[in-house]
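Bench log, entry 3. Co-assembly request; chain sequences pasted below exactly as received.
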Amino acid sequence: MSNMEKYRNQLINRKNIIVLFLLLAVYGVVQGLFNIGVLGNFYMMTLILVCIYIILAVSQNLITGFTGQLAIGHAGFMAIGAYMSAFVTMKLEGHLVAGLIFGALMAALAGIMVGIPTLRLRGDYLAIATLGLGEIVRIFFLNFNYMGGATGFQVSKTINWTWAFWLMVLSVVVITNFINSSHGRACISVRENEIAAEAMGINTTKYKVLAFTIGAMFAGLAGGIYANYMYFIQPGTFSFLKSFEILVMVVLGGLGSITGSILGAGIMTIGSALLADYPEMRMVIIAVLLILIMVFRPNGIMGNKEFKLNFLDLKKKGEENGTT
Amino acid sequence: MESAELIIQQLINGISLGSIYALIALGYTMVYGIIQLINFAHGDVMMVGAYLGWFCTTRLNLPFLPALIISMALTAILGMIIERIAYKPLRNATRLAALITAIGMSFFLEYGGILVVGPQKRTFPDVFPQTVYEFGNVTFKYGDIVIILITIMLMLLLQFVIKYTRVGKAMRAVSFDKEAANLMGINVDNTISATFAIGSALAAAAGVLLGVYFNQIDPLMGIMPGLKAFVAAVLGGIGLIPGAMLGGYAMGLIEAFVSGLGFSTWRDAVAFLILIIVLIVKPSGLLGKNIREKV
Amino acid sequence: MALLKTENLSKSFSGLKAVSNLDLEINEGELIGLIGPNGAGKTTVFNLLTGVYAPTEGSIYFQGKKINGLPPYKICQRGIGRTFQNIRLFGDLTVLDNVRIAYHQHVTYNTITGILRLPQYFKGEREMKNKALNFLKIFDLDDKAGELAKNLPYGQQRRLEIARALATKPSLLLLDEPAAGMNPQETHNLMELIRWIREEFKLTILLIEHDMSLVMGVCERIYVLDYGMVIAHGTPEEIKQNPRVIEAYLGEGLSDAGTE
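Structure output for the full assembly:
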């Protein structure tokens, strides 16, 4: 069975093992510190929020950084995921997993419905249309009295570090694998040159909608995790400012860089938490930093490069199996 | 109330609110026309203008008109400073980087504003007589009339500046083709500064009028009107001055009528929905021309 | 039967006729030139043939089937490949990826397989990479496979565009000024290359070119376009002697026609 062996070697290579080991280490250290009480509830919340924002930033990056579509409606999909998952877990008393899946799927469905008509708009027009759609979603939930309307909706807390961390890992792996497939490259070709992509046989509309739908689905998942962790959700949380926040993380980290988005989400979330006692000063500092970074490093921290574990790759470079 | 009267009443409400949106939208559209930047901080510039007007009337006890003019002048300077510090260095960077900078500037003004003046709402003094004119069931407030008239005067003034003055001609030239304008001896940097100055002054006027209209101001007051004015600019056709006016009045009227029909919690959603439908049918806005990318 | 045939093909932009009543007929295996002064509507013809523009009037038949109204990607999948006058590579991607994207329409695994990294994914990617590398070897670009397309020198970018268009496996290849900006030596090499790929890939080629020596050297038949209309059509010898062609070119001078 040489084929089977070959396949096993492609999956279980040195790099993947090291990454898995690092992930287990991060997960274990955080869980351990929390169990012995070194890590308080506040820090745990921050770390879980980091996971949520990583999912949001990476999925936004798929749409904006990789496929080149400036859509600013992520908060809307997050809201759909949050409310729909809470609908399953609270109103139907369903299992958390059922809630998360339902929330993500409903967000994906909304992504398809929104994406097909709006994605032929270009640049700023797409931005304002999606921003408007996100606001429409928020206003819908504001008037959705079945789940609390403007006053908000209570959700039992069922998400813990284990869920948040591994769902984040799952999201990043799925999106990374997608980008490194031929279908992902088709999305990137849309960003690079839409007219040339069409001329090379790429159905650009299809790939824009595909990227948008996958992005929306993970925004919905992030919303579901958020809802089932925070005890309480209300429409005001999902305003266009939340979409801005996510976009800022992506651009800060670097458009078209997954590791950049992870970094951006981490820096912004932890930074905000550290300054939580000075809420106004915090926003002013964030604003000034943002302007400075854009003025001096307009392509973000990572540009479109990835942070790679190449120094761990002791074997020849020929084995990179297509992760160019 | 008869339905005809109801319609007239909402028309009045819509036009006075729409005037304010139109003033803000003009700044958005002028800046977009000249450097293709969505200046998300524009609504917050308006907020600063409102505070300056408030300061002049309550602390300096100035009458309305001098307060308005001082506020417009100082806000114009603020607009130029913002452009020089935050946007000029990014003129050759990606448009997304410039957009993020604008978002950063917006946060800076909002929360810097909270640090300086505090988060609480301030009551805007009654600068106009509280006279109400009644025609049957239709009421005209004195303030409504002033808002509408000031807006019309400012728009006429803007048209004059753009059509007949040197700086206006330069603005049109730069928005048409920066490089060619530069070769023709137009100082592009100064022209862009002038655009920000004029746009910010109009926003300041809008801010003061908004304070008068709602009787109160706060540091986050620029967010929603700013967003709606931007929607108005896109609705009319961004980059086009008549488009911004049309879009502004359209937004005001949509809001007034949706509220008048008893769906006030849905009014923003309706406005966005109309925007999206217009964009899908006519991607460059109501008055915009479709431009084709050259292959 | 003609491989490509247009009947009465016309395109107007806000009332201005860019192409009017164009009747082209290209048979399998031919190498045809499309020439004309600047602004004669040559690139518009390409954009019509590839679906970038919809014709105002007339029809386009490819392999006997009407193709006007189809989106560009479908026309590409039917077998018309093209290059662009102003190079349109995927600049921030590697040379290898540029070619792999052109192969995408023949991808052997689906999205879910790619995300789950099933065996089909690795097999498909390996095949695609090998094919693309072999392809680059033909164009002498295999040692640049890992470089970003935008970092290639100009001449290599032009070659990569042709390679990428060929990777879509076309039966008709449209080349829009492939020699633009090349020096005489490079132009000569390109001529050789075009002749060679036609034999190797059994292609039909339609070529827009300003460089008269190139057109006269390789093309078997030539269409001359002026103000959107065909003013002459024939072998290179016939075209050279056609008074209307000389007249059309007089404005800019036949001798400098090759410099742009």
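The CA atoms of residues 27 and 208 of chain A lie 34 Å apart. The interface with chain B takes residues 64, 70, 117-118, 120-125, 127-129, 131-133, 135-136, 139-140, 142-143, 195, 240-241, 244, 247-248, 251-252, 255, 280-284, 286-288, 290-291, 294-295, 298-299 of chain A (CB under 8 Å).
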